[in-house]
Amino acid sequence: MPVSSAKSSDWTFEHKGLEWVADEERRGESRALFWPWAGTSCNVILVSFGPYVMALGLDWHVAALAAAVGAILSFLLLALVSLAGQRGGAVTMVASRAAFGFHGNKIPAALSYLALVGWETFSAVLATLAARTVVHRLDPDLDTGPIMVGVLVTVILVTTVVGIYGCHVILRIQKWFALAFTGLSIGYVVLTLPRISFATHGQLSVGAFVGGVLLVANALGLSWVNCAADYTRYLPREVGKRGVVGWITFGGAAPAIVLMGFGTLLAAGDPDVAARAAHDPVSALSAHLPTWFLVPYLILALVGFMSGSIIGLYSSGLALQTVGVRMPRHRTVLIDAILIAVVGGYVAFAAPGFFAPFQAFLTTTGVVMAAWTGIFLVDLWQRRHVGYDRGALYSPVGGYGKVNRAGVGCLIVATIVGLGLVTSPDPHIGPLLGYLFTPAARAGGLGSSNLGVFVALVLAVVGYAVAHRVVPRVRPTAAERAEDRSAERVGVTAS
Question: For residues 60 and 200, is the Cβ–Cβ distance under 8 A?
Answer without folding.
Answer: yes
